[in-house]
Amino acid sequence: MKTRSMTRQELRLRRSKFLCLPPEIFIQICAHLLPKDLASLLRVCKQLYNELSIVEPSSTIQKIWKQSRLRFMPLRILDPPKGMSEQEYIKLLIEKKCSLCGKKSRKSKIYWDVKVRACESCYEGGTVTGIELFYFNYSACEIITCIPFTNIRGDSKSYWRFLVEAKLKEYKSLRGIERYHWVYEQTKQTEEIQSEVTKRWREDYSNSKNDFKYDSFNI
Ligand SMILES: [Zn+2]
């Protein structure tokens, strides 16, 4: 159902009503809201949310977000990626805005290796395929096991350019045995990232939000 957007006066009135609520009642209300509505409400009632963050431990606030996710997005059972709060995670799941250019795009996708949502154009411009690296940046191929791939483009894996450059810079700053250890550790980390990403691709697939090929998981 299409809803009319609120006027500034209505918004101010609604905001002030929420500001009169005691934090425990506010929490009760939040616990029954859709993630999308929860995000909107907390944006509007920023002052109350900030106060709530002071009086409530962050675990309570995280619990509200998690409860909302599990209740209304039952196929999103994986917890947020390491280093990401429930709030940031839900925002990444529901917002269609590209994290790189800021434009809204219905075709935007989440790239879990770098934890960003990107539109088609930022993905195309920001990534390079393994085949392109082979022809134009062969030194990156020497450390390819140290770079997580983000998706499949054509018949080849694709990698974020900034990640390739950062890893190469790090690798080139090392000498001799240091390089050997670095490659060993980075390869291990990359395998862990790739395994985590594969789980999230499966969940994306179950949610039918993304149109990548299921076959690509083991390539
Ligand atoms: Zn973009």
From TrEMBL:
<protein>
    <submittedName>
        <fullName>19154_t:CDS:1</fullName>
    </submittedName>
</protein>
<dbReference type="Pfam" id="PF12937">
    <property type="entry name" value="F-box-like"/>
</dbReference>
<dbReference type="InterPro" id="IPR001810">
    <property type="entry name" value="F-box_dom"/>
</dbReference>
<dbReference type="InterPro" id="IPR036047">
    <property type="entry name" value="F-box-like_dom_sf"/>
</dbReference>
<feature type="domain" description="F-box">
    <location>
        <begin position="15"/>
        <end position="68"/>
    </location>
</feature>
